[in-house]
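Standup notes, protein team

Yesterday: finished cleaning the Nitzschia inconspicua set.
Today: MaoC domain containing protein dehydratase structure.
Blockers: none.

Input for MaoC domain containing protein dehydratase:
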Amino acid sequence: MQRLFHDTVLLGNKKILLHHNKTQNLVVARHYNIAPKSALWENSSAMVADKIRGIPSKRCFHQDTTTEHTNQLRSLKSTIPRMGQGIQVGQHAFLERTFSNEDVEQFSTLALDFNPLHSSLDWEQIMVAQDDSSWDIHQRNGLIQFQESNPRVTKPVVHGMLVSSIFSSMFATLSPGCIYISQSLDFRRPVFVGDTVAGRITVDRIRKWRKGGVLVQCTTKVTTQPRGETTDFGLQPEEMHSSEHVFVKGVANVWLPSGFVAQKP
């Protein structure tokens, strides 16, 4: 057995990630070489099949969704019909999300991304120990923010891919069983732990697909609103967020297997 990091262990040909669940006070071992026909695989596949059919599934192989995350997902607002059945160009959706320290720690562990920017660091120790000017460059370019409760400790930067996962959660909620075909991402500004951001998707193009259903092209953005600005969801995104700050921008192509274009009156 060889220990590489504090939470990663190599045991024979098995790679095990140890994750401490503070809520349940237990350690979960996730094996990354699960056989395709294992009980875990079959159970998870059955859960997905139930979800696609709209059947409440009683199966459970891993339940770590916190109440906080569930409540955030319930804030999803959309003019896009469920399953894309009657979808039209111009329809859009909006979801607010606040990323916590635990979110960033768990993502770092799963992605094996231990970049120190994603951790809380003591700035004085950094300045004493640094052997190059990279941290000064980070600070000048807005990649360093300090905690309000402790102004010498930095706020972790949320991974760009974790921020962008808001798009996947929106599509999966609006159309369970949808398939991502492609997603471009342009990271414009950093998001820090504790920041509340808004994921927005807007339908730009729709076409029937040979495999069934429709292929939808959407503009995807993660933004924030200036403090004090109210949201009128009846307005188009460009109209109601002219002064928004854009953190991530891109284009997604998503297959909606049971979707269809709204019939013209």
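Follow-up from PR in the comments: Residues 66-102+158-261 form a domain with the Thiol Ester Dehydrase; Chain A fold (CATH 3.10.129.10).
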